[in-house]
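Late entry, written up from scratch paper. The run itself happened at the end of the previous shift, but nothing got recorded in the book at the time, so transcribing now.
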Amino acid sequence: MPQSGTLANLMGSIVDDGRLKLVSLVGAGAYGKLYRALDTSSTSSTSSASSSSSSSPRFYAVKCLRKPAFRSRDAKFQDRERTLHRRVSAHPNIVTLHRLFTDREHVFLVLEFCAGGDMFHAITDGVYHKNTELIRSTFASLVEAVLFLHSRGVYHRDLKPENVLTNHAGGSPLIADFGLATPSKISHDMDCGSGSYMTPESFSSASSTYCPPQSDVWALCITLINLVSAMNPWRSAQASDARWNSFLTDPDFLREIIPISTSLTDLLLRCFRLDAALRPSLVELGRAVHALPDLYMTDAELKQAAPAVRRAAGWFVPGANAYDASDYSSPSTSGSGYSSIGPQHRVPPAGLAASSALAVPDPAASSPRHKVPFHGTDPSSVADSINTNPQGNTHLLQLCLPSLSISASSDPCAAAAPPAPGKFKRLIRRLRAWRKL
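Output as recorded:
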């Protein structure tokens, strides 16, 4: 059982010598619970008749952790998290750590409260969908924040949408959760982080050391894909992952599963090189994204794209389901979190099916053998079709096509549709490459 499961529910408690009241539970993860806390001094001043100009009630986020034994391993980890977080708290795009206090059983961290929630839920709510300017500005702020981290000798190692807070409009990102942060530029702590966002060399199956600064840059690139498409390109960059292998053998693989522009694809190909020394630096990444002419495929390109790509772009696609409903990346329980501290414990927004993580496209759905011709059907007048578990697919369909209803019927003509011209040779090249592996 996760440590947070053994922690008592302190909602309604008065802590910090009466200064804070824990009014609601925001989330619970592997190592702690997060509460929304009211500053009691702000309410007393507001209720005072003589303070007509007093400010509104102030709220904080209070992370509750189990108090570790003296000089234990957990004590060292908690101390490292607090030390590194304090070192970078001054940046406007990093959650502020105000102070900490303890009681006999718990350690409490008093953090900046962000009412908007985390980036993961903003993505699944469709806040960033086709909003190029918001994606650019949000990503630029993340790059600036990570540059600040690195300039202070702090490397996060668990950057992902769940660990980034935003306002209600998806802007003003704040990096949170320093549970896995390290001051080391070279790390022997393998398999540390969230699988979908980790570099190939950070897995113990591939190497014995890796560079945390480069891991942060890699994670930002995956996060950029999340912002653009609400998808992860692979579960993990390891030889055991079929999508990662497809990416290594086919430079066009990303555009066969995600509706991204050729310019963004070229940048990502450089960022995901196996040789870490050949990848762009964090500064180069920020400048390159800012200079990209576009992030998405054009309508002309989408007409020739695979069904999975068109679905992700918000187009109606008749025929077989483009996604495998069981094919979702697993939620991470790394770190102690801030807002979601494990999205599996959060209540999904109204009308959105529960999902543990961003969807990973089914490569079979984007294969040329499953292509269907574009019919130009009006999405508002046709119900989308699903063959498998509808709950798992509602997550993506409502993100891309919120006005569509879900039907259990399917188009029998889609399976017999011929592949698009010029794609058969690409399939043969990929099959030959796989035989050589």
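DSSP finds 13 helices and ten strands in the chain.
(Scratch paper discarded after transcription.)
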